[in-house]
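Per your request, structure below.
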């Protein structure tokens, strides 16, 4: 039968694919439908038809899966921030566990992989310590402050509630929206590059109650903008945020000049340069962190403690002397390991993150760690030390064959691979197998409830 875009078909959703979309079959063809779960019977219209698969938009749920629950947030089916809020948390965990196993079997070609039971998050809402909200317009050109709608380049959803960060964060968003509308500061228009306001970025120290706020603009500023920024700071300081307090307010400007690369200029408007966070691991080790606005830090602090406890448990099964912490961000993993080994070397390309890492080492009186700023694939070859352990925590894309080759030349006895993408983790473990590294254990940790994302720590050992 010739299928057409827009054609509506009935589907029984059988399972979930990575990315959180439900999978049904139509005429032997695999069809992906967002917003559905196993057990749903739905009507969906084709949006893309390929030889081996199709994508369809959910039109109507004909019969709900008995497992479905009412999402807590009224925006959950449009905002794109939470893809699976309609699933009970237990079912979300089961889905993620299966995703990890499937990725290793299908992509990593490792059958019956040693995947431990996923560790769920104690908090399934209010867990995020950072959120970025965009200024813009909805489809009727009303002022909005919220999230970019998935699949729509220019429309921003006006978000007056969100259950992923704290209640204080929602208060800030709503107060800033009202203030900005009053001041008539124009949002940046992505369609033609005019206007000024880009985003509002809120970061929280979950264990310290400190908040850092960054307002990002373009260079095209309205008259009086800089004077009125002082009123913006007064507004923020006047908010009643319960136990939480704003300790730092930044104004960031995106500078784009024809012929030169885009850069960001940060100006501190109020308070301290950094906000602080504390982490305590299962073994009692604890560290204090000072975090700059642009530095990477794990978004779920409580689960990061669980993740790092797992990393330490795996890494310290053997005795190690020298450790490389690749893609080290603010140095958190290396700093926790430093206490237990002779020396740690971290590599990270984000300059702010390395500055934070160095400050954090000093703050915690850790002197057996050095950080190098730059690209792992370039800097790794300059290191002369022989590590017994290499920790890798790359972005979603994973690592390249070139990095794997270089790692294998160092011949560490163990590799701990931390990953936010099971597909690239499985692929890279398959490549590492070629170099004699066997997968010993994988521990999934749920850092991102209500979304399809899943973090893993994998331990690989070199066969003698
Ligand atoms: C998932 S984060 C890991 C951060 C850190 N391990 C932690 O737990 O806080 C990945 C980091 O890799 C950095 N990065 C991305 N590509 C890189 C590259 N080619 N070389 C060095 N660092 C890179 C990013 O800036 C980011 O800080």
């Amino acid at each position: 039968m010739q299928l057409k875009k827009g054609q509506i078909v009935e589907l029984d959703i059988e399972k979930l694919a990575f990315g959180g979309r439900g999978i049904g079959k139509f005429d032997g063809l695999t069809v992906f439908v967002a917003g559905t779960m196993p057990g749903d019977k739905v009507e969906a219209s084709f949006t893309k038809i390929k030889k081996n698969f199709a994508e369809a938009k959910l039109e109507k749920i004909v019969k709900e899966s008995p497992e479905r629950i009412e999402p807590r947030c009224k925006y959950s089916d449009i905002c794109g921030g939470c893809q699976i809020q309609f699933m009970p948390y237990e079912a979300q965990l089961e889905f993620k566990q299966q995703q990890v196993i499937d990725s290793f079997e299908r992509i990593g070609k490792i059958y019956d992989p040693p995947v431990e039971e996923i560790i769920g998050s104690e908090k399934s809402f209010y867990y995020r310590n950072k959120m970025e909200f965009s200024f813009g317009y909805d489809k009727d050109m009303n002022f909005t402050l919220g999230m970019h709608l998935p699949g729509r380049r220019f429309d921003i959803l006006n978000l007056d509630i969100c259950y992923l960060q704290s209640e204080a964060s929602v208060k800030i968003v709503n107060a800033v929206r009202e203030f900005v509308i009053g001041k008539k500061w124009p949002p940046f228009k992505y369609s033609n590059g005019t206007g000024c306001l880009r985003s509002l970025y809120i970061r929280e120290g979950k264990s310290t109650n400190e908040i850092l706020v960054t307002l990002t603009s373009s260079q095209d500023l309205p008259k009086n903008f800089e004077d009125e920024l002082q009123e913006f700071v007064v507004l923020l300081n006047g908010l009643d945020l319960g136990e939480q307090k704003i300790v730092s307010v930044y104004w960031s400007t995106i500078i784009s000049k024809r012929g030169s690369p885009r850069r960001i200029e940060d100006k501190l408007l109020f308070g301290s340069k950094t906000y602080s966070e504390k982490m305590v691991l299962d073994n009692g080790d604890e560290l204090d962190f000072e975090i700059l606005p642009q530095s990477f830090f794990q978004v779920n602090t409580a689960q990061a403690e669980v993740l790092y406890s797992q990393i330490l448990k795996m890494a310290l099964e053997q005795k190690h002397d020298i450790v490389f912490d690749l893609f080290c961000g603010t140095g958190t993993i290396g700093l926790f390991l430093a206490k237990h080994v002779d020396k740690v070397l971290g590599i990270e390309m984000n300059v702010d993150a390395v500055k934070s890492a160095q400050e954090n080492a000093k703050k915690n009186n850790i002197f057996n760690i050095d950080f190098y700023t730059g690209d792992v694939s370039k800097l790794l070859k300059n290191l002369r030390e022989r590590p017994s352990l290499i920790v890798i925590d790359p972005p979603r894309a994973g690592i390249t064959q070139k990095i794997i080759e270089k790692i294998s030349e160092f011949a560490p006895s163990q590799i701990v691979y931390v990953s936010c993408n099971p597909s690239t983790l499985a692929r890279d473990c398959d490549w590492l197998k070629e170099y004699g590294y066997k997968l010993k254990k994988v521990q999934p940790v749920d850092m991102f409830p209500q979304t399809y994302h899943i973090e893993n720590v994998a331990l690989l050992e070199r066969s003698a």
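The two ends are 56 Å apart (CA to CA).

Regards,
D.
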